[in-house]
Amino acid sequence: VTNVTRTNRQWLLRRRPVGTIVADDFEYREDPLPIPQLRESEILMKTRLVLCAPTMRNWMDPPGNGFYRSMPIGTPVIAPVVGEVVASRHSRYPVGSRITTLGSWQDFQTINAEVLSPRVIPDDITSLDALGVFGLNALTAYFGVLRVGGAKAADTLVVSGAAGSTGSIAAQIGKIAGCRVIGIAGGPAKCDWLVKECKLDAAVDYKAKDFADILASQCPLGINLFYDNVGGEVLQTAVNLMARRGCIVLCGQIATYNESRPAEGPRNMMRLVYGGISMRGFLITEFEHELTAALADLRRWKEEGKLIHREDVRNGFRNIPETFGAIFKGENMGTLIAAIDD
Ligand SMILES: NC(=O)c1ccc[n+]([C@@H]2O[C@H](COP(=O)([O-])OP(=O)(O)OC[C@H]3O[C@@H](n4cnc5c(N)ncnc54)[C@H](OP(=O)(O)O)[C@@H]3O)[C@@H](O)[C@H]2O)c1
């Protein structure tokens, strides 16, 4: 790195998007990479894969009444990434090691490893799997279903966004826990995949006209556990179908991320009061100390063929904003990843 002049491509957040993101919300830049002068504990990372995480759309909003970050205007868009260490002043991260970390939409980035604590990817895990079946979303699903939701055998578990990265793993972990699992997804192709490949008990298309009736017919005793990635009307439909002492796990609210003002919550909250129903949000960071054990379970289930997963990899640094936008149109089939080795 020190002797060669390299170019650093970046996608900056040009302005705060209003509604759905458009190309002009981002600015492309290309500059020579300055020779890095690393300080103690710093590493220089070459970004390889970028995870398209829907919540990044929230981070693009102005600072507001939320616990989440707000990305500064004029800086590279922050995103979970897989990178390779190309220069290092930290003994845990030798040159050549592959890491997952919070990075950004740029080729090279200097990271203080003590502050960000990147995770080193073991040799026997591919970079794609490190963002996919063993990545942030899969681990979130693991803790959401088992710890927050306390899934039990014979529960009726309903998962929204079920054909996506987080949802498909959540649904299959529910099957492993012995639940009757119903997935909610957009369109027949995703629903077919959930039943035929992921072996869910049923899948319901939320875009169908009689969605609420079909879901009700699949849950004759009500929903014991609702794992929600979507919010909005899908959440409302589930609230109306919850069984007594049921639990709603709020993993995300993708249906509302493009709204300028905080979205309306579900109506009919007295149903939760009278039914003794809980509703709780969570982040994976809550379970940081249990990651190793969770990963061991995910690896075993994958080896045993109990976890089906798929990655939707799109090549090209120049396409990153467009690739990211696809997740809000439901165009992704599995974990949406931008590969930037071009
Ligand atoms: N709490 C946490 O720590 C945590 C961690 C990771 C992810 N999450 C959340 O989990 C959710 C899923 O994220 P992911 O990364 O796994 O993405 P994903 O499910 O792979 O992709 C998002 C999917 O959401 C669906 N969708 C998009 N817009 C929608 C809308 N307006 N209404 C209903 N469905 C819509 C689309 O599927 P369809 O074709 O089925 O519509 C799309 O494919 C997000 O809400 C995310 O913020 C939370």
Quick overview of this protein structure:
Helix content is 26%, strand content 27%. It has 342 residues and is an alpha/beta fold.
Count of helical segments?
A: 11
Which structural category do the helix and sheet elements fall into?
A: alpha/beta
- CA-based gyration radius: 21 Å
Per DSSP, what share of the residues sits in E-state strands of 2 or more residues?
25-35%
How does the major sheet shape up?
7 strands, mixed
The residue-averaged pLDDT reads 96
Approximate shape: globular
Bound molecules: NADP nicotinamide-adenine-dinucleotide phosphate
* Low-confidence parts: none
What does this entry look like structurally?
This protein has 342 residues and is α/β, with parallel strands linked by helices. It is 26% helix and 27% strand. It contains 11 helices and 15 strands. The chain has helices spanning 56-59, 113-116, 127-131, 136-148, 165-176, 188-196, 211-218, 232-239, 270-275, 291-303, 320-325, and strands at residues 7-13, 26-32, 42-51, 78-88, 98-104, 108-112, 119-120, 156-159, 180-185, 202-205, 223-228, 242-250, 278-281, 311-315, 335-339. Strands 3, 4, 5, 6, 7, 14 and 15 form a 7-stranded mixed β-sheet that branches. Strands 10-9-8-11-12-13 form a 6-stranded parallel β-sheet, with helices on both faces. A two-stranded antiparallel ribbon has the order 1-2. Helix 4 crosses helix 10 (291-303). The longest helix has 13 residues, at 136-148. The two termini are 18 Å apart. 42% of the residues are buried. The model has no long low-confidence stretch (mean pLDDT 96). NADP nicotinamide-adenine-dinucleotide phosphate (NAP) is lined by residues 53-55, 136-137, 140, 161, 163-167, 185-186, 190, 229-230, 251-255, 282-284, 327-328, 330, 332, 336.
